[in-house]
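Data availability (excerpt). The following record was deposited with the supplementary files.
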Amino acid sequence: MKHTSLLSLLTLTAASAMAQSAAPAPALTTSGNVAFTSDYVFRGITQNGGKTALQGGFDVAHTSGFSAGVWASNVNWAGTTLEVDAYAAYGFSLTKDIAASVGYIGYIYEGNSALNTSELNVSASAYGLTAKISYATTDYFGIAGSGTKYYELNYAYDVAAVKGLSLALHYGITDGKNAASTDKDYSIALSYPVLGFTGTLAYSNGSGSFAGTYEGITAVTLKKTF
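Predicted structure:
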């Protein structure tokens, strides 16, 4: 009698496990992240004068390819100490290794709306390399006139010799509308798991005078995604 009950229980357990494994993945997924960095660097320029920054975001994604999210960080600019970004995108895969996306992002600065900026973007990715173009539909972070473009190449590579270690390379060009300067920036970053966080060591630099002042910046970041 006990043997029969145990067998029935095992059968029901196995059937339940099979049903759960066969259940389709949810159409809508959510994720959040929080990070602490020694210096918030954007397009080669410090956003908080070399001071530390606390950052966090929340994202939603649908199996159709649509996604949206919000992200925030403390900054150190005239009249503001808070940046909030809102963004949405539609992405699709052409093959297992080739994908593309179109999107929008709005940069909002609490207390200083003159810095607010909106951009449309399009990107294509293949085998770890991503090319992206962003087009400002408004003034560019306080610089008058829409039409500033930002071109960037990003490459991500998992270092096979060291489990968990990844390399990220970046090169960008800011093409300011009606500006004599065309700014360039680049960065190299290494990331590795650290006590449940992702630790990143990055170096950034650039040249030009349209978008801001460039200087070699080394930043350390700890990030947790949940």
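Summary of structural features: The two ends are 46 Å apart (CA to CA).
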